[in-house]
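> forwarded from #structure-qc
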């Protein structure tokens, strides 16, 4: 199995506007946590279409293996990237418009047959999942990244258990908390 022994970027993150960064940072945080090198760009399918085409077309040559594209409104960024490369493209719909991301969700997800974009949820949760999904794709050829992903899952599980204990502690001793449901009439 081939291992990613490189510090060159393997994920390319594009966003339609600098205003998308607070959402897309959720993706960069996950990639940093999983030690996956990435590049990051602002490029717009409508405002800088040639730049988007160049970044997408040259991706494979730069060593990129997965694209993550976040955009809001008439969000064509992920789809345009997918039109220019055969590398996997993950689309993050961003809730930056008066339609709160429903427009971006449909524009990103509803690709014509033959040119897929793997679309995640709208907003920060989606951006985070885009990072994890990119890592899962890369981990198919990288056993040590697979281990880091398993550690990440374990960490998620542990934080839910911690939250469970914290909520129970807050309700301990309060009327009704922990009371057994009466059965029968
Ligand atoms: N956008 C930029 N070019 C094409 C699109 N769809 C999106 C950005 C951002 C929204 O338009 O991704 O979410 C508003 O961008 P701005 O720069 O006006 O704040």
């Amino acid at each position: 199995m081939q291992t990613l022994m490189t510090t060159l970027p393997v994920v390319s993150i594009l966003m339609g506007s600098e205003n998308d960064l607070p959402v897309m940072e959720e993706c960069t945080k996950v990639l940093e946590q999983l030690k996956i090198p990435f590049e990051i760009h602002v490029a717009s399918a409508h405002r800088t279409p040639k730049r988007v085409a160049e970044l997408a077309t040259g991706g494979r040559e730069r060593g990129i293996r997965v694209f993550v594209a976040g955009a809001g409104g008439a969000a064509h960024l992920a789809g345009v990237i997918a039109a220019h490369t055969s590398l996997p493209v993950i689309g993050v719909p961003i809730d930056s418009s008066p339609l709160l991301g429903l427009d971006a969700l449909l524009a990103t997800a509803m690709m014509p047959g033959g040119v897929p974009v793997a679309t995640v949820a709208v907003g920060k949760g989606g951006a985070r999942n885009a990072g994890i999904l990119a890592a899962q794709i890369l981990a198919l050829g990288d056993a040590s990244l697979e281990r880091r992903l398993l550690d990440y899952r374990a960490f998620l599980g542990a934080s839910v258990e911690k939250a469970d204990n914290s909520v129970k502690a807050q309700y301990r001793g309060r009327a009704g908390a922990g009371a057994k449901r009466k059965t029968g009439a």
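QC bot note: The domain at 11-143 is CATH 3.40.50.1970 (Rossmann fold). The first helix runs from residue 21 to 33.
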